[in-house]
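Structural biology now treats backbone shape like a language. To illustrate, our science desk offers a sequence and the tokens encoding its fold:
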Amino acid sequence: MAWQPYHSVWFILGFGWIALYLVRMGISPVLGLIMEEFHLSHAAAGALFSVIFYSYSAMQLPAGHLGDRFGRKKILVAGTLLWFFLSLATAAVRSFGMLVVVRFLTGIAHGIYFGNDRPTIIAHTPKEKMGKGQGISFIGLALGFFLSVFLAGLIADAFGNWRWVFVIFSLPSLLASFLIHRYIHEPDREPSGPSETAPHFRRAFTDGNLWLMYITGFVMLYGFWLVATWMPAIYREIGVTDITTGALLSGVLGLMGMAGLLVSSILTDRLALLGYGRKGFVSVCILVWALLMMATGYAVENHPSQILISILFLSSGLFVFGVWPPYYALLSELVPQSIAGTTFGLANLVGFLSAWVAPWVTGWIKDTTGSFSAGLYLASGLLVLVVLLPLAIKQPRTARQAG
């Protein structure tokens, strides 16, 4: 197939996710070093990891709405450039309080991206390829996850200092800002009269189908951020004490996620074209993910085998990441493009509220019980509770006909 302009959009915005995740997740493998330097408990370290999501979540709705009203390209360029400087600032802090402040500001910069990148994908991608567009561009997220977690461990070991992680990880952000500015044009906007604007935006807040999606996203992101934050520490709990080894084992989740995203993005479009829609695929992914997380919790509690836990953990990566192409493609079918930024921003706002609590709650459970197993059980139970929610969504007739 010949290269199309929308392919460039997919890959450039995917590279933006790599840059974002380097800065976001580079802290995970070095949490132990930060805990030692600032004398933190597991709960406090979990709260430090979560602080980026307080501001990130708060930015979702404003960023998406501003993109809907004034255009997305300038916002994307500004956001990537801003977190370049904040990554350098992270490396420069000399107190725990300043580290919290800089991570909070980094969350604001990161919060600009999602609510404008997903609608940009929608605007440039043919409807019949929407799952591929959402999935392939999100491969950058999975690859960024792997590179951040793995390379952060290598950099910390090589330099003997966690700060160099954020110096090196700042550079791709600068490149992402340039690529977006140079090669992505402002998406065309749907014409709409002033009288249509308010009802359209109100729908993002009042539609019951959308709230089923928002709640489902909240629980999925709770499970995601549990493993993203604490998997290196879980490996330490079962005897993997070397930072680089733990980071490699944890980061491979992102490589599995790349495979999951690619396969899922192809399957969801194919199933939609065959008339099966996307709802059932989302529910199946959630169910399998829940079972794998439950098995991981049992293995941590009863059989702390590094091989068994690695197999369960890496298998879950196919679904931790693979659930998102059908989820976002389904969400794009439920609303007009004119409010896509607001809708995706609100979805991510509700979803990322889980990032406020998942790292802290799981850290508190570890401090209280001495093990991460109960935290894994809790996340698995929450996933089971939302398995049927996507199936309850009633799609518009045009969306059903499109798949």
About this structure: The radius of gyration is 20 Å. The mean pLDDT is 86.
